[in-house]
Amino acid sequence: MNPNEKLEAHYSLLLGILSPWSVESVELNVTTKRVDIEVVYDEKEMVECPDCGKLGPRKDHTEKRTWRHLDTMQFQTLIHARIPRVQCKEHGVKNVKVPWSEPYSRFTLLFVKFAIDVIKACGNVSDAAHLLNLSWDEIHLIQKKAVERGLSRRKDEKIKYLGIDEKSFRKGRKYITVLNDLQRQTVIEVKEGKSKEVADELLSSLSKKVKRSCEAVAADMDPVFKTAIEENLPDADIVHDKFHISQYLNEALTNVWRDENRRLRRENVETLSGTKFLWITNQENYSEKQKDTFNSLKVNLYKVGRGWQIKEAFKKFWSFSYKGNAEKFFKRWYFWATSF
């Protein structure tokens, strides 16, 4: 075996190229840092219809096509081939499948997998495009195809627990609403905006099978979500999770602090100025300076201090495992919270 044959055999092994395909030639250009691999189909072999799998006669070939593959020792690697076309009695003239790529793709399967890993690791398109030496449009195409593959594999399975939530982006100027399968920790659907219409669109898109199987939906206390869930999933419980409850308690306490601080400052009292985050931050996360500041405040002298005690007391609610005990605690806590 001469050196060229060894090189071609080497690349056949690397690419997983098997008969009736074979590597015909490998050209290395040191100046352009590029490897070009020519792959051919055995002319003596019949060709397979991609739709039915039946063998048939070859009609002709496509024009030569090129696919980007994983780099070889930092050299950009390209595969070139003319795809045979089969004359199928049932489906007509069809391009045969190539083992290294999906139909109509400009990239090999291995390159696409690597590109997706890079995109996920980078977190933004620009950095991924730079590392992969691809354009923004090429990166977007790879992402789009990956989403389409994922959606095509998604089964119409039963979903026990759903989650619906809004997310802000562009510094809070734009919103999306996300529907999740909480058990599988997967995103089902995303829509731009945050309104009852958006929530309705997300929930109404669920299949009858999913709607029947859903036992509960986790959401915040926005009446938009409550109404949409009740109308689209009337048999499902609405669950307000620990994160959103804590968020609402902190927002309420912040309002108490703001009003009281404003009143005190009109009396030239600055005691509460700059203490906002002390009231809404977990004490275990305090810095030493924050600990000293909080300890120096006579908490019971301030309305925000009493509000803080109410907020902290609610943490016990999450420790109950029996409904009766939880309801009894909540009623006492609610009376305290609404009368302080």
TrEMBL record:
InterPro entries: Transpos_ISL3, Transposase_DDE, Transposase_HTH, Transposase_Znf. Residues 48-91 form the Transposase IS204/IS1001/IS1096/IS1165 zinc-finger domain. Residues 96-140 form the Transposase IS204/IS1001/IS1096/IS1165 helix-turn-helix domain. Coiled coil: none annotated. Residues 162-338 form the Transposase IS204/IS1001/IS1096/IS1165 DDE domain. This is Transposase. It comes from Leptospira noguchii str. 2001034031.
